[in-house]
Amino acid sequence: MEKHITVGVAGHVDHGKTSLVRCLTRYFLLKKEPSTEASAEPERQVRELTYGPS
Questions:
Q1: Radius of gyration of the chain from Cα atoms?
Q2: C-alpha 48: how far from its chain's center?
Q3: Does residue 9 contact residue 20 with C-beta atoms inside 8 Å?
Q4: Where are the chain's structural domains?
Q5: CA 38 vs CA 8, 12, 14, 48, 51: distances in Å
Q6: Which of 18, 29, 30, 41 could be a cystine partner for 50, CB 3.0 to 4.6 Å?
Q7: pLDDT for residue 24
Q8: Alpha helices in the chain (DSSP H)
Q9: pLDDT tens digits, residue range 19-47?
Q10: pLDDT reading at 9 higher than 80
């Protein structure tokens, strides 16, 4: 039987919510070490936009 975990994340803009969820997902679901690399898309880096499972 698989374990299911529900996680809620709240915070202000640019406080790392997406990065946190991405690291947790990568670590727990994919069993890989979390990445500390920023978005590879230069436009998103300049505009400080994040996207992902959040």
A1: 13
A2: 14
A3: yes
A4: 1-54
A5: 22, 19, 13, 10, 12
A6: 18
A7: 83
A8: 17-29, 42-47
A9: 888 888 888 777 766 555 555 555 555 55
A10: yes
